[in-house]
Design goal:
2 domains, BirA Bifunctional Protein, domain 2, alpha+beta, 12 strands, 7-stranded mixed β-sheet, single chain, SH3 type barrels, 5-stranded antiparallel β-sheet
Length: 317
């Protein structure tokens, strides 16, 4: 089935994407159909949002081989060579019962689904793939993987990013999520990155064991593994919260135990954000509402709901 927003010049389905529908049906998933594959799109999230307004069903997926206006959190550009990676959006309809407060929790659940699918694809027995609050999947390197205790900051490379956008009905206390657009950018086949990305990004192909044939890395299999994780966890978390997945999320938390630098209004430990653009502390995990727990140098434990959290000027972002 073609999307009504499809570009007329869309190319035939790439070989490693031909099995998506069959795998979705084989596993009995509620997500993945219909699947709309575009040779090029501005943004798959924009396609999904437009289709959602026109009544597209729950579980619909839009995938692009190339994006001209792909974006991540806070408007950052997501760059990807044509046909090498997974750039897709999933439309979720929570059924009118999901409060807005659940959105941060669902962003983490999506990150966990991407992390789990990536770990399966590369055979991540060492547990190097982690979820970095609030919406990235990263691969730990070197001493970070070994759990160095000499005070050195951990080192990681970004593998994937998640962007959630919502369509709301009602207002105030009655506001509910009518449609949730889950956008994912996951590096799969890319082996070299331009500019500064060369030292900050990675891909499934680069993370696999040396000598593993690249052709065995199927984007269809990885995509369906992500969809299966969402199928398993999203409905439960949307209704009841993070309790079911919290232990898994804690085990995969990239920031837990690390010294962090927090920026932004809701990360500020005073009532006057302009007076403290940044502050430092130690991350103690993620709570059941999806907020980052950071104990400041003043000893106070704070719950960070938004803003930027880094490892500091010498660490990975």
């Amino acid at each position: 089935m073609r999307s009504p927003l499809a570009r007329p010049g869309a190319s035939p389905r790439a070989p490693d994407l031909r099995d998506v529908e069959a795998l979705v049906r084989e596993r009995g998933l509620s997500l993945g159909l219909p699947l709309h594959v575009e040779a090029e799109a501005g943004s798959t999230n924009d396609l999904a949002k437009s289709a959602a307004r026109d009544g597209a069903p729950h579980g619909s997926v839009w995938l692009a081989e190339s994006q001209t206006a792909g974006r991540g959190r806070q408007g950052r550009v997501w760059s990807s060579p044509r046909g090498e990676n997974l750039l897709f959006s999933v439309l979720l309809r929570p059924g009118g019962a999901m409060p807005l407060a659940r959105l941060p929790e669902l962003s983490l659940v999506v990150g966990l689904a991407v992390r789990d699918a990536a770990a399966k694809a590369v055979g991540d027995a060492a547990g190097r793939l982690r979820v970095k609050w609030p919406n990235d999947v990263v691969a730990l390197e070197g001493d970070a993987l070994a759990g160095a205790t000499d005070g050195a900051r951990p080192r990681w490379r970004k593998l994937a990013g998640v962007l959630l956008e919502s369509q709301i009905t009602g207002s105030g206390a009655r506001a509910k999520v009518d449609a949730l657009i889950v956008g994912v950018g996951l590096n799969v086949h890319t082996r070299s990155f331009p500019g500064e990305l060369g030292s900050t990004a990675t891909s499934l192909a680069l993370l696999r064991a040396a000598g593993a044939p690249a052709e065995e890395l199927s984007r269809a299999a990885v995509l369906v593994d992500v969809l299966e994780g969402l199928h398993r966890d999203v409905a439960f978390v949307a209704e009841r919260g993070l309790g079911l997945v919290h232990a898994r999320l804690t085990a995969a938390d990239a920031l837990r135990g690390q010294r962090v630098l927090a920026e932004g209004p809701t990360a500020c430990p005073t009532a006057y954000p302009s007076a403290c653009p940044t502050w430092e502390g130690t991350c103690e995990g993620i709570d059941l509402e999806g907020k980052l727990l950071v104990r400041g140098d003043d000893g106070v434990l704070r719950r960070v709901s938004s803003g930027e959290v880094h490892l500091g000027s010498s660490g990975s972002r």
